[in-house]
Amino acid sequence: MSLRKIAGQQLDGNGSKTLQAALGISLCLVLLAACGGISELTKERMARSEAAVRQAEQTVGNSESGAVQLQSAKDSLYRGRTAMERGDGEQAERFARLAQLDAELAIAKSQTASARQAAEEVQASIDALREEARRAGPQ
What we know:
This protein is mostly helical.
């Protein structure tokens, strides 16, 4: 079926080219609108990011270690949700990835701080045992 038949008009010269261009653009816009929704992959990434932020919240708790990264993850997650509401899947995907990375960094920082504290406690116990052994000395 030709574009002329679709339009129901018989045009000649430049009018035909203008009509064809207009119909072509309209067809492209309709196809883009049909494909322009948020993909399932983006929705899944947002869900994974939300889970990562929740996990980071539990891991970081009231600790200062990782708090800055956790806040950054929350901000990125908010911006990703906003982008999804606007229908901007590309931006939503970008912010979802950023939120997940920030959440993972917050978890890593919090766990590192906990491990460091545990190592310091073990070292303090070793030092106390050494001091006690030194005092007891050879008898």
